[in-house]
Specification:
241 residues, alpha+beta, Jelly Rolls, 2 domains, three-stranded antiparallel sheet
């Protein structure tokens, strides 16, 4: 894979060059279409994905088939990162919400590279800890905060993982992510539009007033952003180049 493309993923970009070189021959480019399922609960994690563009939801699946998002992953992270340390089974469904591309690697090959790279092991452990904290914060947010604040937080998180203030999102996507009815989301989106925070049309949301959206969002957004940024702290400073 092209090094410049790989570097779009912040975890991979945080590795010292010598450690990243262990992975580059093993990575392959994978396209991600909206609705693609990358992992299912209780199945072995055979492949790890490092998104370069797009957005993936990690969702808990109930017996009824209903799903609720517990975390989102974009270019700041990885899907199935725990499998880079030990063989595991997935605990959530990983479903693509915004199409894009990722760098993929077999779990066995990532573990082999991690056995040779202290920097890679450290980065994976650091990210896994951050992901667990994200799941906990998201659970608290869902239980304690209103839908308006949660929607603002979700949109801001999605913006942080993209390159453009325009988000290709359907009502169904947001409904599944936040666990609320589509009619409720429509009303709130229209309110945000009337307040001049977003432009809203079928299948697309353009954020036109990010500062205003941040004022509407709950405290969880700032906490989740700090954790996301800390998770991809360059390992080069600690382990050298």
């Amino acid at each position: 894979m092209d090094h410049n493309l790989i570097a779009r993923n912040r975890l991979l970009a945080a590795l010292p060059p010598a450690d990243l070189a262990l992975l580059i021959p093993q990575l392959s480019a994978v396209g991600m279409k909206e609705g693609d399922i990358l992992q299912e609960p209780d199945t072995p994690v055979d492949e790890i994905y490092f998104p370069m563009t797009g957005l993936v939801s990690l969702a808990t699946v109930m017996r009824t088939g209903e799903t609720v998002e517990t975390a989102m992953v974009g270019r700041e992270g990885a899907i199935g990162s725990f499998a880079g340390l030990i063989p595991i089974q997935a605990t959530a469904r990983a479903i693509v919400q915004i199409p894009g591309s990722s760098a993929a690697i077999l779990g066995s090959r990532l573990r082999a590279a991690a056995s040779r790279s202290e920097a890679l092991r450290h980065l994976l452990l650091q990210y896994n800890e951050s992901l667990l904290a994200t799941v906990q914060q998201t659970a608290a947010c869902s239980a304690l905060h209103g839908v308006e604040a949660r929607l603002a937080r979700w949109l801001l998180q999605a913006l942080d993982r993209g390159d453009h203030p325009s988000l290709a999102l359907t009502q169904e996507t947001l409904s599944q992510a936040l666990g609320v009815r589509r009619t409720t989301l429509t009303l709130i989106a229209c309110k945000f539009r009337d307040l001049g925070l977003i432009r809203y049309q079928r299948g697309r949301i353009d954020v036109v007033n990010r500062a205003g959206l941040e004022k509407v969002a709950c405290e969880c957004y700032a906490r989740l952003r700090r954790r996301s940024e800390a998770a991809a702290t360059p390992a080069a400073a600690q382990y050298g180049t």
